[in-house]
Amino acid sequence: MIRIAVCDDMPGYGDIFGNVIEKWARKKGIKIELKKYVSGEELMSDVEGTGYFHIVFLDIELEGGMDGIITATQIKEQYRDVCLVFVSQYDNYYKEVFGLHPFQYLEKPVMRKQLTECLEQALINCRCLQEVFVFRFKGITSSVRVREILYFESNKRMVRICMENGDKYMFYSKLDRVENILSKYNHLFLRIHKSYLVNAAQIFQYYPKYVIMRNKERLPVSTRQREYVMQNHMKCLERLC
Q: For 132-240, CATH number?
């Protein structure tokens, strides 16, 4: 089941959004739990009481103590992987919301087609969060969440997985084979070097000769891969922002 929240203080707007979302879910055969709010305080109270929403549609210009940006900041502090969609009558908030890594930014009035397209993409994102990579080492089969992988590193016949929490795993394979397997996933992995295959979403900073991962580790970018890495890293940033 996918939990979806709509927070908008404009009279009737939440109901309009809700009707489109419910019709979309029925058509897709997806089970959802839809909740509607008129204030950031009301939404946060439910987040703290009942937990995680997969998708949140959030009006920026909420009246009261908490506007949409403050509300989004608090949600992100607890659940950084929430699929956050800002909704606004104005287009001058891009810089303010950029650091929150919103999934999308929709301008009012939002057309039905725009909303359903956004839902389709958000659904892919939600499924993406559940992807796992399975490997076998010394007779034991293990799996890790793909979104938590920083990078794969090859050394002769061994491949090492480096995770965002610092854990490391080893298994026998070739990096070419791992790259081929991951090409079928929703996550984007970039071959920055013959020895490194990195999760593009885990790149903190990109430089022509190296990348800095979110754990502050610096990995080399080979000369032949620089143009490829730059182009595909930009595509990933567009997808995330």
A: 2.40.50.1020
DSSP 4-67: EEEE--STTHHHHHHHHHHHHHHHHT--EEEEEESSHHHHHHHHHHH---SEEEEESS--SS--
The pLDDT tens digits of the residues spanning 83-95 come to 889 887 756 555 5
Is residue 41 within 8 Å of 65, Cβ to Cβ?
yes
Give CATH superfamily name and number for 2-129. Response regulator (3.40.50.2300)
Distance CA 226, CA 88 (A): 38
The ranges of the chain annotated as CATH 2.40.50.1020 are 132-240
Phi (first) and psi of residue 2, to 5 degrees: -105, 125
Domain with CATH 3.40.50.2300 in the chain: 2-129
CB contact at 8 A, 170 and 158:
yes
Dump pLDDT digits (tens) for 97-150: 555 667 777 888 888 999 999 999 888 877 777 778 989 999 898 989 898 999
Q: Residues 171, 138: contact at Cβ < 8 Å?
A: no
User: For the CA atoms of 41, 119, 1, 18, what is the dihedral angle to 10 degrees?
Assistant: 50
What residues pair up with 7 in beta bridges, in sequence order? 37, 58
Tokens of 190: 């970039």
Element containing residue 176 per DSSP (H, E): helix 175-182
